[in-house]
Amino acid sequence: MADLPGIVVTGASGRMGQMLARSIAASDRARLVACIEREGHPWIGRDIGECMGGAAMGVLVTDDPLEAFAKAQGVVDFTAPAATVGFAALAAQARLVHVIGTTGLEPADLEKLEAASRHAVIVRAGNMSLGVNLLVRMTQKIAAALDEDWDVEVVEAHHRMKVDAPSGTALMLGRAAAEGRGISLEDHMDSGRHGITGARKRGDIGFSAIRGGDVVGEHDVIFAADGERVVLRHLATDRGIFARGALRAVLWGQGQKPGQYDMMDVLGL
Ligand SMILES: NC(=O)c1ccc[n+]([C@@H]2O[C@H](COP(=O)([O-])OP(=O)(O)OC[C@H]3O[C@@H](n4cnc5c(N)ncnc54)[C@H](O)[C@@H]3O)[C@@H](O)[C@H]2O)c1
Ligand SMILES: O=C(O)C1=N[C@H](C(=O)O)CCC1
């Protein structure tokens, strides 16, 4: 048991944090060694299992990443951009594998992750599920086969508490379509239409976001031409799919060379 990689979960009280803590504690391939929450959080100092309303797991929630990282080989981080950038610097110092599920990262955040990845392994993906990563590959292939007579639209739906848009997954899918077409997403992205927008610009990749209720995550990639449409769809109904991918990623990262990786690397897609 002590030989299994020790894993820290950040943002442990969150929707994903709780799912991750349960999944890692139940795994026979990893050990849950610490849980982190932000300073002042009511769960600090308490057992994570009891905080989640179950039996004690013998793992305390702390607000001290240095103390937590000292006993670990990996950290799984689904929090918020500012928190993730801070954890990346500390994980790199401790040479931990840092699996990042956090979305909404800005270019300045990505530069800091790049710096951290010179010293340690980072695996980052806007969606860690097998199904979405397959959809990314399919989107890339279909976009490569179709010309600009086919308009590409990415439509996503998430729960009412989601703070970023377009979703990390939608951006992965849009980027895959752009790569398939050999264009840059940044130059062809059309997001958040409103008012007199004018006709759709040929070659643009459109994004629409729905927010409501408890939707775990739904994504459509629509290829629309005159007289026909191809629609690729992924429906997430259980956050366990993201936790499974994250656990696979943190195990895969053990022993890899420092650098930035994604779920395509982990899944071999
Ligand atoms: N990549 C994927 O597969 C995937 C899947 C689901 C969610 N996500 C992303 O994961 C992130 C979290 O999603 P969620 O629904 O769990 O959100 P959430 O708001 O339920 O949880 C986030 C948690 O992070 C904690 N946190 C924030 N700052 C912190 C800090 N400085 N130190 C410690 N903890 C801190 C918060 O207190 C909260 O408990 C979002 O960016 C979301 O888009 C990614
Ligand atoms: O619940 C969320 O937030 C999700 N975020 C990821 C995204 O932004 O795509 C993955 C799906 C769930």
Automatic annotation (TrEMBL):
One of the Pfam families matching this protein, by short name: DapB_C
The cross-references to PANTHER family, in alphabetical order and at most eight, read:
4-HYDROXY-TETRAHYDRODIPICOLINATE REDUCTASE 1, CHLOROPLASTIC-RELATED (PTHR20836:SF0), DIHYDRODIPICOLINATE REDUCTASE (PTHR20836)
Record keywords, A-Z: Amino-acid biosynthesis, Cytoplasm, Diaminopimelate biosynthesis, Lysine biosynthesis, NAD, NADP, Oxidoreductase
Where does the Dihydrodipicolinate reductase C-terminal domain lie? 131-267
Q: Which residues form the active site?
A: 158, 162
Q: What is the lineage of its organism?
A: Bacteria, Pseudomonadati, Pseudomonadota, Alphaproteobacteria, Rhodobacterales
Q: Which PROSITE patterns match?
A: DAPB (PS01298)
- Residues engaged in binding NADP(+): 38
Q: Does the keyword Calcium apply?
A: no
Where NAD(+) is bound, by residue? 11-16, 37, 101-103, 125-128
Gene3D superfamilies per record: Dihydrodipicolinate Reductase, domain 2, NAD(P)-binding Rossmann-like Domain
Q: What is its EC number?
A: 1.17.1.8
**NCBIfam families of this UniProt entry?**
dapB (TIGR00036)
Q: In which pathway does it act?
A: Amino-acid biosynthesis; L-lysine biosynthesis via DAP pathway; (S)-tetrahydrodipicolinate from L-aspartate: step 4/4
Q: What is this protein called?
A: 4-hydroxy-tetrahydrodipicolinate reductase
Tell me where it resides. Answer: Cytoplasm
Which top EC class is given? oxidoreductase
For the ligand ((S)-2,3,4,5-tetrahydrodipicolinate), the binding residues are 159, 168-169
The superkingdom of the source organism is Bacteria
What CDD domains does the record tag this protein with? DHDPR_N
Q: State the similarity comment.
A: Belongs to the DapB family.
Q: How does it assemble?
A: Homotetramer.
The record's GO molecular-function terms, alphabetically, read: 4-hydroxy-tetrahydrodipicolinate reductase
- Asked if DNA-binding is a keyword of the record, the answer is no
Residues forming the Dihydrodipicolinate reductase N-terminal domain are: 7-128
